Amino acid sequence: MTFDCGFRERAAGGETAGSVIHWLFLLLVVRNRTRRGGLAMSMVVSKDGTEIVYDREGAGAAVVLVDGALGTRSTFTKPELMRLLGHRFTVYNYDRRGRGESGDTGPYAVVREVEDIEALIVAAGGTAFMYGHSSGAALGLEAALALGRKVKALAMYEAPFNDDEAGQQRRKKYVSELEILLADGRREDAVLLFLGHLQIPAPQVEMMRGLPLWDEFKAAAPTLAYDADVLGETGRVPVERAARSSCTGDVWRGELSVYGGDGAEIEQGNAAGAASRTRGADAWGESNGVGTCFGTIFFVARVSATWMNRLSPSRGPASLRGFGRG
């Protein structure tokens, strides 16, 4: 099993204001509601009866895309990732429970979301690669640990784990306030709290509130608590748990690849340190100089080329052409 983990460990404050450009770009440019010809929308039923809606595109080995906070299968970089990966893989792009067109059955537990992913993998033929972004990366790790060899490889981009004590205290305060707001039914305030936690400046938040997407954010606000649960009580990098994985074998070598947008040197160093503590892990890091939104595409391009090389080693190194590099 491969851990291609984009651990951008936040140095002092958890998620950083570096995501401002990322959010604006995703909200205003990347957002894509168009259902292109050949895109198959389907549904699976999870173990607890929850209906999980997904799109399928492409041909080849299966890849499941897992969203971060407030994302759905048609927002952020998801449509573009589907198009790019669809040249080489069959892409399964789904709405996490409580979002978009998928259902939601209480009470919530992280294992329920793992079961959702398992249902998708079964629909995909029994095994799949997996890519998770932000809290979706943390959920992907939970699924990989639980599902073993059903997950061929896991790519994690900017998982918001944090080993910094100050950052953890800030996260604890955020989670406590979030629980109060959601208990009172104050969904918009919960979204505002989350964006404040990301340190997005007030003028940009006000601009977001004028977009049609804002109503979708409010509808998905309860799932912010789900993301908090996925990251665990402390939000620390789960090195020890990842090291306990029994999924590594002769074909899929255990690997921890460090990648993170324009991460500061300390962030890259912390992530490399996490890799050094993980059994059989390798670490690499680079700054792509273009920010998180474009970095997502570059990261997936590099990871997908690695996956293709492992699927067909006799064909030689896979090109990144068509993915922004090559």
UniProtKB/TrEMBL annotation:
The keyword Signal does not apply. It comes from the Bacteria. InterPro entries: AB_hydrolase (IPR050471), AB_hydrolase_1 (IPR000073), AB_hydrolase_fold (IPR029058). Residues 63-232 form the AB hydrolase-1 domain. SUPFAM superfamilies: alpha/beta-Hydrolases. Keywords: Hydrolase. GO terms for molecular function: hydrolase activity. This is Alpha/beta fold hydrolase. It comes from Tunturiibacter psychrotolerans.
